[in-house]
Amino acid sequence: MSREEEIRAGLFDHTLNGHAPEVKALTEEGLKLGMDPMDILFKALIPSLEEVGRRFEKGDFFVPEMLIAARAMQGALVILRPLIAETGAQPVGRYVIGTVKGDIHDIGKNLCVIMLEGAGFEVFDLGVNTPPEKFVAAIEQHKPDVIGFSAFLTTTMPMFKVNIDAIAKAGLREKVHIAVGGAPVTAEYAKHVGADSYAPDASMATRMVKEIVGDRSGSSQGAQALEQAVKLIDETLKKG
Ligand code: B1M
Predict the structure, then answer these.
(1) Rounded average pLDDT over 202-206
(2) How much is the average pLDDT of 45-66?
(3) I need a labelling partner for 139 at 20 to 30 A (CA). Which of 16, 43, 196, 229 fits?
């Protein structure tokens, strides 16, 4: 096994077991060896978190285990994010995103942020548990091309409709494209609540939004990273 393979396996195991210092150290070592940040993300960290979810469903893991695994991964994301984000280029568009009220999951949303930044968007991240009025205020303040809502629980998905109604009530509905996503969300549900688009994952979300605002970034580093990410995600998903 090469050192790179050992690092991928180590990242998978240590994320699964919530060993944050080891995840951080291996991420740093991998980067020093020249490993691609996208490779670290999509071939080690995300598959590990998917395994966490499977174990939670089976009853082998409980909330504390999910939490420490997520924290361990977040530590790696902090290191990877600036490497994926594009620097210095003219933004291709503005994007406001947040996890809806009542929902504190943020890893999937953070991945969307990383990918969007990587593709050249100026992103305003409102964080988790975001109330409708905060989304409305962000549209008024930042005048984004797109606003994105993430929901990760079946119980918080109805907040999409509440947010959209609040945006309409503020007279802003025609001014912004509304995108939704998150693990339990479907295209049918998105349509049902009146969203403009739905994407199943961060790469698709980024691809769609680039089409919406028109890609003025050419073949920038960020755009190339995005294309690479799309390929890696597709591969990861195909493997299951
Ligand atoms: Co929670 N949790 N959790 N959890 N958690 C899930 C989501 C769950 C599926 C686990 C399970 O049962 N298998 C389940 C939800 C079931 C359901 O409603 N369908 C669940 C539950 C039940 C809960 C609690 C209720 C548990 C409890 O307390 N009894 C509780 C709720 C807390 C709350 O929010 N109010 C809870 C808590 C937590 C932790 C805090 C411990 C932790 C979150 C830590 C954090 O995020 N900082 C946690 C975790 C880690 C998970 C799992 C294991 C992993 C989530 C994750 O990060 N996935 C998750 C199980 C799983 O997903 N297999 C689970 C990886 C991430 C890359 O994927 O989030 O799908 P995902 O994001 C994707 C896409 O969804 C998409 O792009 C992302 C990247 O490709 N996407 C968009 C996301 N936003 C988008 C927006 C877009 C477009 C695409 O456009 C705008």
Answers:
(1) 84
(2) 88
(3) 229
Closest residue to atom 41 of ligand 1, CA basis: 67
106 lines ligand 1 (CB under 6 A): yes
**Is any atom of ligand 1 closer than 6 Å to the C-beta of 115?**
no
Angle 187-232-22 from CA coordinates, rounded to 5°: 110
pLDDT at site 191: 97
Token pair for 120? 């050249």
Q: Whose CA is nearest to atom 43 of ligand 1?
A: 105
The model's pTM is 0.82
Distance CA 66, CA 153 (A): 15
Copy the structure tokens of residue 46.
Answer: 């995300």
Lookup: tokens for 240: 């299951």
Provide the pLDDT for residue 200. 92
Contact 15, 69 (CB under 8 A): yes
* 215 has a pLDDT exceeding 80: no
